[in-house]
Design brief:
With about 260 residues, the chain is mostly helical. The protein is built from eleven helices and no strands. The longest helix has about 35 residues. The termini are close together.
Length: about 260
């Protein structure tokens, strides 16, 4: 089931240009949230003293000690929740605009809250096996770096979970969107219908996942690395927020086209 991703990019960009009020609003919201998160994170994770005099292993050990804090754990969960809510909110707004039902940010936010729990649960289902595998592999790697003896069995289990996680993500990646924008869908039916529509269409979904979960984050990461002063940081924050909004539109438009083509077959 071929999908013209080049045209999808163009259509998504045209949407941002035509719906400037939506674009400016959500870019601004993403910028404010990202700036606030960055400031709080800097306060919680102070700069490492004498970092230049430390070896890579010593810096890694200090960072691990800082990240093991309970406060950091809960703050990270809160940050992920807020970013997911903004993504769901933006998706709801894009859907309402496309259906000519948009009545403002407040109305779309309220609609998002009514479907938030199910969308969050489906997102967790999509990513949980993959993250468990990543954590398992990372823990084995860090144990090796620290001079311990890593278990080969743990590494194999971690790699197996990563493979299962990738397959699960590809098959179910559109289930949160399906549940979010379709009031007739339950959590169970969203999973069932997504699996049904994704059957024998994994190559198309794989390309979508590469773009959404690898390409966009890599571009944002490169921008963050280049931000070496206040001006560059502000520019990077603006562009990264624009990428976040663009990815919301891109995902929604892909979902619509994918469903149309899958239903027609």
């Amino acid at each position: 089931m071929p999908i013209n991703f080049t045209q999808l990019f163009k259509d998504s960009w045209n949407f941002l240009q035509n719906q400037r009020k939506f674009t400016f609003s959500f870019v601004g919201i993403f910028m404010l949230l990202s700036a606030a998160v960055g400031l709080i994170q800097q306060a919680m994770l102070p700069a490492i003293e004498n970092a230049d005099a430390m070896s890579d292993e010593q810096r890694l050990e200090v960072l691990l000690q800082q990240s093991n804090s309970t406060d950091i754990f809960w703050f990270t969960l809160l940050k992920m929740f807020l970013m997911l809510f903004l993504t769901f909110w933006g998706t709801t707004a894009v859907h309402q605009i496309s259906q000519r039902q948009y009545q403002g940010l407040g109305q779309s936010a309220g609609r998002t809250f009514t479907r938030l729990f199910g969308a969050l649960l489906l997102t967790i289902i999509c990513f949980f096996p993959f993250f468990v595998g990543i954590i398992s592999v990372l823990s084995t790697f860090l144990q090796t770096v620290a001079g311990g003896q890593a278990s080969g069995f743990s590494s194999i289990i971690g790699l197996f979970l990563i493979i299962i996680g990738v397959l699960t993500l590809i098959r179910l990646c559109l289930s949160p969107i399906r549940y979010l924008i379709d009031e007739q869908e339950s959590i169970k039916s969203a999973v069932q219908n997504t699996l049904k529509f994704s059957n024998k269409r994994t190559s198309t979904l794989f390309f979508y996942c590469v773009i959404s979960y690898l390409f966009f984050p890599l571009v944002a990461f490169q921008l963050a690395v280049l931000a070496q002063n206040i001006i560059l940081s502000a520019v990077a924050l603006l562009v990264m927020s624009l990428i976040n909004v663009f990815s919301i539109v891109f995902t929604y438009r892909f979902y619509v086209i994918f469903n149309q083509k899958a239903s027609a077959l």
